[in-house]
Amino acid sequence: MKVTIDGQEINVEPGTTILQAARMIGGESVPPAMCYYSKLKGSGGKCRCCLVEVSKGSEADPRPMPKLVASCVTGVMDGMEVKSITSERVVDARKSVTEFLLINHPLDCPICDQAGECDLQNLSFKNGSAKTRFVEEKRTFEPENIGDNIQLHMNRCILCYRCVMTADQLTDNRVHGVLNRGDHSQISTAISKAINNEFSGNMIDVCPVGALTDKTFRFKQRVWFNKPYNAHRDCDKCCGKTTLWMFGEEIQRVTARKDEYHEVEEFICNECRFDHKDTKDWVIEGPRKFEKDSVINQNNYTRKLDTVTIETEKQILLGREQDRKKISMPAVPLKKDEVQVFKEGNI
Amino acid sequence: MSIETISLSGRKKEVSNKKMTFLESLYLVAIFKGLMITIRHLFTRKVTIKYPEQTRELSPVYRGQHMLMRDDEGRERCTACGLCALSCPAEAITMKAEERKPDEMHLYREEKYASIYEINMLRCIFCGLCEEACPKQAIYLTKSRVMVKSNSDREDFIYGKDKLVMPLDMAINNTKQMAN
């Protein structure tokens, strides 16, 4: 099936969504996604961040779709034409959606452990406005303890349901979910039960904001001061392939490896994530690379640097060869007044 | 043309070795000319001041020693977000965060605070980027004329929270002044 996104054509399988097709193309026209997670079945359609304009429905029915559609749950049709970043309506809608998501989100990025790798931070940096129009009081919840490994900050939650789907699809017995309705909905365990399933730690990785964070890493370090390394170990429960977030010789945090859309490549078990904080447990492969504009790259030198040699005598005192040629260009004779200045000086 | 004879600035002058006339060799005119320059300078504006009786006016953008501010209730504003350290071009700032305990509510403003906050004054270039980056208005470069006190040990130039945090009585005075 042929689909055109922002003027870029691509052939995809039937059944692919617009978002997946855009990700195959890559670049600027990929819509942001806060709730859609390609590894989780049934995710998407909740946050409305990925709205796109369909300017031509299909080859058979070329009428444009009247409303903006959520690209993560809309399948492509043959000959479909989609406008993502080129459409003014889409850019405007994204701005509004960002504003809506930030209505109840506290402005505590300086405290939040997710800062620096937060999807909502990236979204509002790209599409948000610098000022808030919201004057009412934000929705708050009582802090709740959901176990020794995972910290829940319900105030920061944007109700993307990713963590619920992770628990449904990875662990055998889900003990948490979304309680109440509407403005009062909250992620919680049924009767203050601790979450201790084998793969429950992946809730932390899938959470797009700082609502679920690693308790063993709580306030230990800002993510951009850590040095991330790819590492692996033999694990009988999971693949064992992780990213270690080191500070000096200390492993401060272990996460799964995330791709450019901040989705984990492979889920890891709780044992790898929380219990192995010793460098002896891991085989370190090398530094993990992040996208160019990520704050995590700050002060990380993952490229090999060439040694710089400065030959003072040759290059500075005498000047470079090409400059010397330029100064005394015999081929281009000076003008008459220039010759005078050249000879006598210009004082 | 060789590199030695080129005048890049255009001010290069060849030194001449021409013989002086009798009048020139008396140096009378030259001495008088020189004296005139000296005398003229007696009537121009003085370039020096009588320090320490007089001090120079500070520029409005003067940046002195750092201070970690307290809010009007005397609680520390800093929440150890690390943005000052990130923005610091000289990499002079280090910090360690800690979680606030329930009985420390009167000491720290936010849930998280800096248990260690150090500025290496030998590295700091007083550019003020930390002040600009701070989202909590916690770090300020004061108008203090004392920048860094002289010392003999390098370790003493790493200023910890004992030297950087605003003294409590200063915070109390500020609050009183605000109330008036």
Automatic annotation (TrEMBL), chain A:
CDD domains linked to this entry: fer2
Domain 4Fe-4S His(Cys)3-ligated-type, chain residue ranges per copy: 89-128
Cofactors: [2Fe-2S] cluster; [4Fe-4S] cluster
SUPFAM superfamilies on file: 2Fe-2S ferredoxin-like, 4Fe-4S ferredoxins
Keyword S-adenosyl-L-methionine among UniProt keywords: no
Key words of the record: 4Fe-4S, Iron, Iron-sulfur, Metal-binding
Domain 2Fe-2S ferredoxin-type: 1-88
Record keyword GTP-binding present: no
InterPro entries cross-referenced by the UniProt entry: 2Fe-2S_ferredoxin-like_sf, 2Fe-2S_ferredoxin-type, NADH_UbQ_OxRdtase_ferredoxin, NADH_UbQ_OxRdtase_Gsu_4Fe4S-bd, Prok_molybdopt-oxidoreductase
Protein name in the entry: 2Fe-2S iron-sulfur cluster-binding protein
UniProtKB/TrEMBL annotation, chain B:
Cofactor: [4Fe-4S] cluster
E.C. no: 7.1.1.-
Cofactor note: Binds 2 [4Fe-4S] clusters per subunit.
Annotated compartments: Cell membrane
Xref: Gene3D superfamilies: 3.30.70.3270
Residues the record lists as binding [4Fe-4S] cluster 2: C88, C124, C127, C130
Matches recorded under InterPro entries: 4Fe4S_Fe-S-bd, 4Fe4S_Fe_S_CS, NADH_quinone_OxRdtase_chainI
Keyword annotations: 4Fe-4S, Cell membrane, Iron, Iron-sulfur, Membrane, Metal-binding, NAD, Oxidoreductase, Quinone, Repeat, Translocase, Transmembrane, Transmembrane helix, Ubiquinone
GO-annotated molecular function: NADH dehydrogenase (quinone) (non-electrogenic) activity
Transmembrane segments: 21-43
Residues the entry annotates as binding [4Fe-4S] cluster 1: C78, C81, C84, C134
Main location class: membrane
Listed SUPFAM superfamilies: 4Fe-4S ferredoxins (SSF54862)
NCBIfam families per the UniProt record, alphabetical: NuoI, PRK05888.1-4
Family label: Belongs to the complex I 23 kDa subunit family.
Function noted in UniProt: NDH-1 shuttles electrons from NADH, via FMN and iron-sulfur (Fe-S) centers, to quinones in the respiratory chain. The immediate electron acceptor for the enzyme in this species is believed to be ubiquinone. Couples the redox reaction to proton translocation (for every two electrons transferred, four hydrogen ions are translocated across the cytoplasmic membrane), and thus conserves the redox energy in a proton gradient.
Subunit structure: NDH-1 is composed of 14 different subunits. Subunits NuoA, H, J, K, L, M, N constitute the membrane sector of the complex.
Protein name, per record: NADH-quinone oxidoreductase subunit I
Protein's organism: Flavobacterium suzhouense
Name of the encoding gene: nuoI
